Amino acid sequence: MIENIQENIFIEGAIPVDLITEILLHQNRNTHTGAYSIFVGQVRDDEIGGSRVSAVEFTTHTEMALEKFHEIKRSICAKYPLADFLAFHSVGRVLTGEICFFVLASSVHRGEAIKACQEAVERIKAEMAIWGKLLLENETAKWKENN
Is residue 54 included in any domain, yes or no? Predict the structure, then answer.
């Protein structure tokens, strides 16, 4: 049974490693949980048109995105027997190598945690109103395609 009530998944800038560490330290207090599945996404320094990505500027329609997040979370928690489910996504500028997306699903058994985490990642990327503009080293920009 999920105890947390996560209102907002958005964090301005990169998701701090300290936050992820704090979450994991808190999670291991639940001795009934047997498995955690975690996804950590970071900004890559892809090459586009001869220039490398230096950062991504994430924007969102916050109200619409949060409504969709809560719908996704309810659906996943109804489908899988989870002990906990958390997700965070950056808004604003995130430099290459920094963390921009984090999902954690925990359950008694690994299968449910892994499936729930994977489904959450895919649905958040496909269904939520979040856009990324790739900022290139040559000072140009290109809108990111989610894939």
Answer: no
